[in-house]
């Protein structure tokens, strides 16, 4: 999970669909009580305040061609599970695949960066498989988890 | 390992026993208790936890690099969303271009993918060279194959992970469900899914790259197999 509740989502030069997805997912997180989430409008990830940097690229072959997207800690790690903190995450999207919803995919990957694991509940974007989720947002259960963590 | 001949499954078992004493050792329940260095939150750690209270280790396995074999795979776990999911081993087999039992022989930094053109946006891969012991399904891949694995994070971090992990490359057989990069890159092979790599190690047959908080895939099918050889037999079509 990221190390503060002032959550900055920076990005590389994303394709429009991913820009929209990340913006909507970030705005939804900003609505969480006690949690501030900002979609960083200037393109670039160099600011030290960034908590997440989002990339996209076109991948058609193994080993990345089968992925909609993924998240990885690329910053400094401190603490230990379940309170392991990462100073910066990198999220990648594959522009060669069409997810069921760009917002749902962004919501799913950003949810991992704030400490959420996969859910068996269909009503949340962080459901195990986004194809099976019925919502593009986090459900109340997941929102409460974030509120408790931050 | 030039001149390697394809072996029967009997040969696979023999190969495993000669190299590490693991394949075909149904009495191996778990050596996880002797490891203790699995990555926090990893699938290896979770799988080890499930074997609590069954720490018996066969004399053949005790003292080998088995626990390190599972730890090796940790740096190749990707936390993400795959586009395809398979509900059974048979379904995954059908979606694969090839299914092979193979022994890793070399491991190094593979192709750097930088298709978005940004200097810091590239993605590294790990290239594993394997000697094919048995082709179980699909189109023939030859006696030696290179398989690319995703290593997420920055390219610099990924290279560091690969170089750190390289000395621990397992020398026991692994089971791989592969796809090629055809038609664009028929020379590239990778896993069809994160559930497409199976190893035998404590505790039993596991898919070490399966997304860590989802549990082991296909539990109803896998519980029937104590060894990788047994699982391979189930995948190989009847002659």
Question: How would you describe this protein?
Answer:
With 150 residues, chain A is of the alpha/beta class. Chain A contains 3 helices and 7 strands; from the N terminus they run E-H-E-E-E-E-E-E-H-H. Chain A has helices at 16-30, 102-113, 140-149; strands at 6-11, 36-39, 52-57, 67-73, 77-78, 85-86, 89-94. Chain B is α+β, with helices and mostly antiparallel strands and 239 residues long. Chain B has helices spanning 9-19, 43-49, 66-72, 89-95, 155-165, 219-222, 228-235; strands at 79-82, 98-109, 124-138, 144-151, 174-181, 185-191, 197-200, 205-206. In chain B, strands 2, 3, 4, 5, 6, 7 and 8 form a 7-stranded antiparallel beta sheet that branches. In chain B, a hairpin with a 3-residue loop joins strand 5 and strand 6. The two termini of chain B are 27 Å apart. Chain A binds chain B through residues 12-13, 55-74, 80-81, 84, 90, 92, 97, 99, 105, 108-109, 112, 117-118, 128-131, and chain B through 40-41, 78-85, 113-116, 118, 121, 123, 125, 148-150, 152-154, 157, 179-181, 184-185, 188-193, 211, 213-214. Strand 4 of chain A pairs antiparallel with strand 1 of chain B, so a sheet runs across the interface.
How large is the radius of gyration of chain B? Answer: 17 Å
Shape, principal axes of CA atoms of chain B: globular
Straight-line distance between termini of chain A:
10 Å
Strand arrangement, major sheet of chain A: 2-1-3-7-4
Oligomer: heterodimer
Question: Largest interface by residue count?
Answer: A-B, 39 and 39 residues
Report strand % of chain A.
15-25%
What does the radius of gyration of chain A come to? 14 Å
Backbone shape of chain A: globular
List the helices and strands and how they pair.
The complex is a heterodimer of chains A (150) and B (239).
Chain A: E1 6-11, H1 16-30, E2 36-39, E3 52-57, E4 67-73, E5 77-78, E6 85-86, E7 89-94, H2 102-113, H3 140-149
Chain B: H1 9-19, H2 43-49, H3 66-72, E1 79-82, H4 89-95, E2 98-109, E3 124-138, E4 144-151, H5 155-165, E5 174-181, E6 185-191, E7 197-200, E8 205-206, H6 219-222, H7 228-235
Antiparallel strand pairs in B: 2-3, 2-5, 3-4, 5-6, 5-7, 7-8
């Amino acid at each position: 999970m990221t190390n503060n509740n002032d959550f900055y989502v920076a990005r590389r030069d994303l394709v429009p669909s991913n820009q929209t997805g990340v913006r909507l997912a970030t705005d939804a997180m900003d609505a969480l009580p006690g949690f501030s989430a900002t979609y960083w409008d200037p393109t670039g990830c160099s600011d030290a305040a960034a908590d997440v940097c989002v990339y996209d690229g076109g991948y058609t072959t193994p080993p990345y061609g089968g992925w909609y997207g993924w998240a990885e800690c690329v910053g400094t790690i401190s603490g230990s599970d379940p309170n392991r903190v990462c100073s910066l995450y990198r999220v990648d999207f594959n522009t060669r695949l069409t997810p069921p919803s760009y917002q749902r995919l962004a919501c799913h990957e950003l949810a991992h960066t704030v400490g959420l694991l996969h859910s068996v509940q269909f009503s949340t974007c962080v459901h195990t498989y986004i194809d099976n989720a019925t919502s593009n947002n986090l459900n109340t259960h997941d929102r409460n988890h974030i509120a408790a963590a931050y | 390992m030039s001149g390697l001949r394809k072996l029967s499954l009997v040969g696979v078992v023999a190969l495993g026993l000669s190299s590490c004493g693991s394949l075909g050792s149904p009495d191996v329940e778990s050596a996880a208790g002797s490891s203790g260095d699995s990555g926090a939150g990893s699938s290896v750690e979770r799988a080890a936890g499930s074997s609590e209270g069954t720490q018996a280790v066969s004399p053949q396995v005790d003292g080998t690099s088995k626990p390190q074999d599972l730890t090796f795979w940790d740096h190749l776990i990707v936390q993400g969303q795959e586009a395809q999911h398979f509900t059974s081993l048979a379904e995954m087999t059908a979606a694969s271009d090839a299914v092979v039992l193979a022994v890793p022989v070399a491991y190094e930094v593979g192709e750097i993918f930088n298709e978005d053109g940004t200097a810091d946006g590239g993605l590294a891969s790990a290239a594993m060279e394997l000697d094919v012991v048995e082709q179980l399904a699909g189109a023939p891949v030859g006696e030696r194959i290179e398989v690319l694995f995703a290593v997420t994070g920055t390219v610099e971090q990924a290279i560091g992970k690969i170089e750190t992990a390289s000395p621990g490359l397992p020398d026991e057989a692994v089971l791989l469900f592969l796809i090629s990069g055809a038609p664009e890159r028929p020379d590239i092979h990778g896993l069809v899914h994160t559930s497409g790599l199976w190893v035998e190690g404590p505790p039993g047959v596991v898919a070490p790259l399966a997304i860590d908080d989802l549990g082991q895939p296909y539990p109803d099918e896998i519980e029937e197999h104590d060894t990788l050889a047994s699982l391979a037999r189930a995948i190989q079509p009847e002659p």
